[in-house]
Write a structure and sequence with these properties.
single chain, 185 residues, alpha+beta, Nuclear Transport Factor 2, Chain: A, 6-stranded mixed sheet, 30% strand
């Protein structure tokens, strides 16, 4: 008789669990396996946009780098300096890209993407930069940090950086804006 009771208890427990799962009571606790094809494509497009940013940086083409940002972008560097607008970024970064950052190489890996809306995503990118110089021409140590981005989907389907906050985990002193290149050494 005990064996029949155990089988009956297990059967009833299975029915209750299946009913709860199918009614959605445990849906929040269970991982979602159904993929969202639109978000999957957008995630891939965001990763490509981040790689495009890195590639244009590594070519030291300040205009191409600026074009990875939205027209009304907001950028805050690791030292707390804020720039508004693509044109201001291009104007400010030009001397750096032809000066102390002229030999830099930057890599990045998307750590996370969170869609705030279908056309707005918060993106964290682990980054590393080599080849940066101090203003006296001496080499800086390898820089590492986190780019915290808000990216927006454009009408053509591309993703641009609307907000970027640079977080640096290495201790490097701030650079001052350059008006000319440092002497070659």
């Amino acid at each position: 008789m005990r064996m029949v009771q155990r089988v009956l208890f297990c059967f009833l427990l299975a029915c209750v669990l299946l009913g709860a799962i199918s009614s959605g009571r445990f849906a929040a606790a269970m991982p979602q396996t159904a993929a969202n094809p639109a978000q999957d494509k957008d995630s891939a497009d965001i990763e490509k946009a981040v790689q495009n940013y890195m590639d244009t940086w590594n070519k030291h083409d300040v205009h191409a780098v600026a074009m990875t940002y939205s027209e009304d972008t907001d950028f805050t560097n690791a030292f707390g300096t804020h720039y508004h607008g693509r044109a201001k970024m291009e104007e400010t970064f030009g001397p750096f890209m032809s000066g102390v950052y002229s030999e830099t190489h930057q890599t990045g890996r998307v750590r996370s993407i969170r869609f705030l809306k279908p056309d707005v995503a918060a993106v964290d990118v682990d980054w590393e930069m080599t080849g940066a110089k101090n203003q006296d021409g001496t080499m800086r140590p390898t820089r590492k940090g986190l780019h915290s981005l808000i990216m927006t989907k454009q009408s053509d389907g591309s993703w641009l950086i609307a907000v970027m906050h640079v977080n640096e985990f290495t201790n490097t002193p701030p650079l001052t804006p350059q008006t000319h290149q440092p002497p070659a050494r």
